[in-house]
Amino acid sequence: MKAVAGILIFFSLTGFSQDVHPIVKDFFAEQRNETVYLQWTIKEGQTCNDIYIERSANNINFERIGLISGVCGSSDADVIYSYTDSIPIPNQINYYRLEIGTQGFTTVLSINTHVTGQKPFRILGNPVKAKLKIIFDSEGLKTLNIFDISGDKVMRKKFSGKGISIDTRELPSGVYLFNYIEGNSVNNGKFVVAD
Predict the structure, then answer these.
(1) Which residue range is the domain that position 128 belongs to?
(2) Of the given ranges (114-128, 151-165, 176-190), which has the lowest mean pLDDT?
(3) Secondary structure string (H, E, C) spanning 19-56
(4) How does the average pLDDT of the chain come out, rounded?
(5) Above 50 in pLDDT, residue 8?
(6) What share of the chain is helix, strand, coil (3-state, %, to 5)?
(7) Distance of CA 29 to the CA centre of its chain
(8) What string of H, E and C letters represents the secondary structure of 98-126?
(9) For the chain, how far is it from start to end, CA to CA, in angstroms?
(10) 106 alpha-carbon distance from chain centroid
């Protein structure tokens, strides 16, 4: 167990490892507020092409959540890389690994995330494959606005009740932000549309 900036973080035995791949060292994760920060180092004298970041909820089925594209590493010095998972699976163990170009995968790193702040809604099945499902604490009239990561509005829905289901198959994969207005209250959230 390790305390970072007042947040308790629980690591498994693979939570920090110096050598996780022939060209990667010092792979670690830490929770920062409601995100998970990943950092690793490509060893001096080593290069690769593209680094894919993958996450799993069960350490079996992994999905790609990020990409650092292009040539990585350097012949002259160690190079540090980082990635922030802005929407980890809350209140459970998240498993991460890197795919280093065509050179295979790193060992798996795990972190148990803890989200203490309660929001007045829950998103079911995030990342979203085909349908976004949101459950709300209240039943009143709501206006839901969905924005892409650039801030452009891609959808607006008015509805009543404690839940809504939206077909996301026509949205490109990526991170989306939303807000919903109920009376004088505005609440914000985010979700990911997966491939």
Answers:
(1) 121-193
(2) 114-128
(3) EEECCEEEEEEEEECCEEEEEEEECCCEEEEEEEEEEE
(4) 85
(5) no
(6) 0, 65, 35
(7) 12
(8) EEECCCCECCCEEEECCCCCCCCEEEECC
(9) 35
(10) 18
Question: At 9, which amino acid appears?
Answer: I
Does residue 94 surpass a pLDDT of 80?
yes
161 with 96, same domain: the answer is no
Q: How many domains does the chain divide into?
A: 2
Instruction: Select from 70, 76, 84, 99 the least CA-distant residue to 33.
Output: 84
Judge whether 154 and 146 are in contact, CB under 8 Å: yes
Cβ 110 vs Cβ 94: under 8 Å: yes
Q: Which residue has the higher pLDDT, 121 or 18?
A: 121
Q: Are 98 and 82 in contact (CB under 8 A)?
A: no
pLDDT at position 12 is 34
Q: Is there a single domain that holds both residue 98 and residue 133?
A: no
| pLDDT computed for residue 19 by the predictor | 59
Structure tokens at 141: 């009239």
Return the DSSP state at 128. B
Has this prediction a pTM greater than 0.85? no
Q: Which amino acid is at 149?
A: I
